[in-house]
Structures are given as C-alpha cells and as structure tokens.
Please model this.
Amino acid sequence: MSVAHPQAMAVGDGIFRIPCPFDVDGVVHLYYIEAPEPALIDTGVATTPHAQLALALRGVGLDLASVQHILTTHGHWDHMGGHAAMRAIAPHATIHVHPADAYLLDRLEAHTFGYITYMPRALGDAQELASVTSKIAENIVVPVRADNLVLDSNTISLGGGRAVRAVHVPGHSRGSIAYYLEDAKTLFTGDAIQGMGGGPGRLPLVFDDARAYRATVLRVANLAPDRLCLGHAFHGLPGGSGTDPVRQGPVARTFLEESGQAAKAVEEAMRRALANGDPGFIAAARIVLAALADDLGVARDQEGLNRRAIPTLHAFYREQVGAPPPV
Ligand SMILES: [Zn+2]
Model:
C-alpha cells in the first residue's frame, strides 16, 4: 500500500484507521468511528482532509462529510492542521478540544513560540528555527473555532448508544485528551503515550510536563483498555511491543509498561546528572544521553546530543531545576 494514497483499514468495532503522510517522512494515524453521529480523531495537516482522508474513506464506502464530531487529541500542527478544511467539508461538525490546548487552534504564534520550536531555541539554532516556523505556516490554517471545550470525564454521545469519554492525559502537551470508546474498550491517545518514541534511537516526545507524562502513563495503565489507537507508530523497547499504531490486549499492556520504564529511565538519569549541582542544560543533556545510550539504545550525534530528544530532555531538566521552557 502506498502511503501517499492511504487506505482506511478496519481495526474492529466500526473503527477505521487512516495513515496519512505529512512533511518529509511523517505519518499521522487518524481514526473514523462509525456511529449515527460519526466521529473523526484528529485531522492531520492542512491538506490531509481533501487530499487523503476523503478518498481513503470513500474507498470503504464512508463519507467524510458525514462527520459530526472532530475529537482533537491535542493542538499540535500534525493533529489540528486540517481542522479548517474539515469545517468546510462538514460545516455542522462540532470541534472538541481541551481548554489547555485551545490556544493552539487560535493563532500561528501559539506554535511558533511553542513546542515545535523548543529544540532550535534550546540549541540556539536560528536556521532550524526559521525552517520550523515556515513549515508550520504552510501546514496549518488558523484560527479555527473550537465549539466544545472538553474536560476530563466529559462524555460525548455519538448516538445509538455509542459514546466516548474524555480522559485528560497531559505531558506531551498540557491539553492532551484521550477518548475512550466505551463499547469497544478502545482508547485513542494521540501522542499522549509514546513508548520509546517515533523511531529507533529516540525518546518519547514530552514537550510540556515530564511529571504529568509519567502520571498519564500510570493512569492509562490503570484504565486497562483492550485496545490503544496511537497517533503515530510509536516504538516499544527492543524485542517488546513492536511498532503497530494499534496495540491490543497483552501487547497494549506491554506498551504501557515500556512507556513507564522509558520515562522512569530518563527521570533517573536526569536526577543523577544533576546530583552534584546543575551543569547547565546542554551539559546535563549530554550526561543523560550517555547513560541512556547504554540503557535504552538512544542515539547520539558527534556532539554527544540527539536533536529529536532535546524537547524531552529539557522537560525532564525543568522538572528538576524549575527553569522556564525554552522560548
Ligand atoms: Zn504532538
């Protein structure tokens, strides 16, 4: 299957997964829930609904225009960039988002002074900052009106006895929400839980709150869903839960354990790096990465750093030293 022309795949219980490519090598997994009031989990980037989603759903006899609920897992560009296009395709659909991420639907600067720029700002890389800033402007359309601010434990009825319950899962972003489809015991987590992150040698991407991320992993493990539907193909530990964006049964449990282990390893390595005082963020990051290269197989470049891991390392550093985010 060519990912440039994605297909909608049934993952069970009237749930379809649609893998949508974006940027150079990214793939975001969107989900369609069949119900009298059909729901869509996230919308990808600006072009995703027209260029990919509509066709993919038509291929399985579904109509994107029938969507009545747009359930935003969080406000990052690859999950909300297509909201404005969806508003045109399904004008009566309700856009749901947690209040702590609603500002990301409002203005470009929420992104260009936020999460996506933490790495270049922490490293003082002006060229990378300019590149990220123009990428964001090309891939999202803002403002888009949020119709419903979802709070933890709110229930959203999809009709016919189907409903999703909101679970606040902060860490990756402050306003991350997982949606629990009760009748299928399926939890759509967006980027809230990441195992070892989006590829080999990486770390889970935790932008905003390291402590909250660890609490989120525990909370979801206690919820014990039968099926986890992830926003990307997050990796487990080597020989562990694999890379499937849909983890079921014992594999879902393993993935949650791995996510907890990875986050704990970063926390402990950061504590050790700061045990004799704060050497500064970059020095602390090098020490942590050296430790994690052995323990978790995390990759390092010639400078002893890992650019994709910088936002996470900064969040765990901030948790210990109380520094502000790198903006
Ligand atoms: Zn994200």
